[in-house]
Amino acid sequence: MYVAVKGGETAILNSYRLLAERRRGDASVPELSVAQIQQQMRLAVDRVMSEGSVYDPELAALAIKQAAGDLVEAVFLLRAYRTTLPRLGTTLPLDTAHMAVDRRVSATFKDLPGGQILGPTSDYTQRLLDFSLMAGGAEPVGATDAVGQAPAASAANGPMPRVVDLLNQEGLIEARAPAAGDPAPKDLTREPLRFPADRATRLQNLARGDEGFLLAMAYSTQRGYSHTHPFVGEIRFGEVEVLIQPEELGFALSVGDLALTECEMVNQFAGNKHQPPQFTRGYGLTFGHCERKAMAMSLVDRALRADELGEAVDAPAQMQEFVLSHSDSLEASGFVQHLKLPHYVDFQSELELVRKMRQASSAAPAQPVEGSEA
């Protein structure tokens, strides 16, 4: 037994060395630095930060390098590191209405107060391989936004009214006033998820959820597995000031800025006994530039409100237990990947059980088939 354990330990240590060699690749090719990943693979970095629940582009880039580009593994590394960090304080609620906007678009209204700002997007690019990138590529020309202004100028325009406010002026969209007393939301990193979960808890779960899973759930709602017809009210991407208010000071202090993506989805609602026909909202918010995740999150958020709005809950995306219990990429990955670890004892017991069942089946007298001759 001791020899077997030592042999397994040696094999594991050798696997570490082989993993490092595969991660490095051909030594004649310059090594990819953490700074290069952070600057040039920003969307991957943003996804890892979002699902890892840690806003630190450098650490997210390090995790991507260590995981050799496996983003789920990178999220795992970042989450594991997160557990070692002390909780120094709690920020005040972010005011995204004062976001320094780099991108702001709406699919519901063409003319917006403050204007549409196209910003950095691949929405209108041709999905053709750009072979010039293999030769170093060309330097980008001076970027401008959708209205011909430099991004810095558009970000300095000050507060921009929300698109849903235009609907709110006519009373055509639900009002989402804070709950009585505006209680502090539960912290999912410190308290287990319990059902039924309130909306604040659901949004926390979705913000940390796997983008692919949320995308599939959101797609299912568009294919008829939910009673919603969504429109993108507004997507914003930019930086928001983060404030804390120490008790001993009594006033707020700015501790930095976060890059965020925010999405508000507008959905038609037929009304019920207590509410007239109107539009309802779905909400998504992520670290970094993660529009697909924010949109999927807002669609799933709206679907999960079915019970609250008196709608029939008959689709997977509307079921809290199904969505929230399966959205975490780390938990899902762990349950699947543990299957490739040794299960020798379990399988031997299953093997012995199947052999006994086969023996019992072969020893039993054959039963005549109904309608056949004796």
Summarize the topology.
Elements (H helix, E strand, L loop, with lengths): L1 H23 L9 H7 L1 H11 L4 H10 L4 H12 L17 E6 L45 H5 L7 H6 L30 H9 L3 H12 L7 E15 L8 E17 L8 E10 L3 H13 L16 H7 L2 H9 L6 H20 L11
Antiparallel strand pairs: 1-2, 2-3, 3-4
Helix pairs in contact: 2-4, 3-4, 3-5, 4-5, 8-10, 9-10
Report on the structure:
The termini are far apart. The protein has 374 residues and is an alpha+beta fold. The chain has 13 helices and four strands. A four-stranded antiparallel β-sheet has the order 1-2-3-4. Helices cover 39% and strands 13% of the residues. The protein has two domains: 81 residues, no CATH class; 206 residues, no CATH class.
Question: Can you describe this structure in just a few lines?
Answer:
By secondary structure, the protein is of the alpha+beta class. The protein contains 13 helices and four strands.
